[in-house]
Amino acid sequence: MKKSKVFLAGILGLLTCFLVVACGAKKEQAKPYTAYRGLKVYPVTITSIKSKEGDLLLKAKTKAPDGAKVLVKPESGSDYSLNNNIASSDDSDGYTYARVENKKVNFKIGDLFSLVKETKDLNVAGTKMKFKAFAVTGYDEKFNQETMTATLRKAVTKAKIKTTTFKVNKKLAKYYTDLDKDDDSDDSDSDDKSSSDSDLDLTDDDYKELASDIQTAIKNDTPVTYDKSKKTILINTDQSASDSGMRQIIHEAADGDTDDWNELTEHLTTISDSLDDVSITIVNPDNKNRELFTVKGGKVSYDFINKK
């Protein structure tokens, strides 16, 4: 009889341990956020989308705490915009982050051009615009730093934020069609005085401007220059603390996590496809005489990950 009681006590003890562990695991899984390198990313549930004067006005609910910043990452735009935050507060001009208050947030997307491949797509009702909206804490970048850091992009990927799709409605299509007509009217007086873009060759100044655009698209503190003698746009990643975003992408790729690296090089390959006889090269931060990636005319000649 005593043995039976001991046996039952043992079983109950194991069952209790199992329940404690199981409940603990369930409680752990119930966290409303995904944590990554000091950031906590929360999903938001959009409850309303309206269009007004070419903008999208959105309402959403979330489990993020008061003060959490709400950002939007384009998923359907051009390569230059895919790493940008296009959300802002819906107050006045909206030049600040939208923030959570009482588990709710109102925000706007004022840059719809970042959600389409070509500007004329906004003139067509039914064009799909895709984006990921989320809340985040621990993100200290200034609002005028459009490009999301590599760390935040990685956190969003790990959080598996769902993509929202919104179709251009008739109201938006009319707004942007009328906007194009106004632009055409403003340009009509100068048509006879200037040649079309298709008749012009890219100059050194054009390539310098493109290098500046790439610098902004990647990370504002990553030096990007145009070397006229080599006809190469150089991404000169260095070892400074301010260039940590770019170095993090490289180090993660070297360690086998190539998601951000592949995304970056795919964008550079797309850009190079439209350039004449000019290469884009990512320089090795440990040896300035060596390259990590080179692409020309849309064709990759070297990638240190694939050893191509």
From TrEMBL:
Compositional bias ranges of the Acidic residues kind: 181-190
Region (Disordered), start-end ranges: 181-203
Signal peptide range in chain numbering: 1-22
Alphabetical UniProt keywords: Signal
Protein name (Swiss-Prot/TrEMBL): Lipoprotein
Native source species: Lactobacillus rodentium
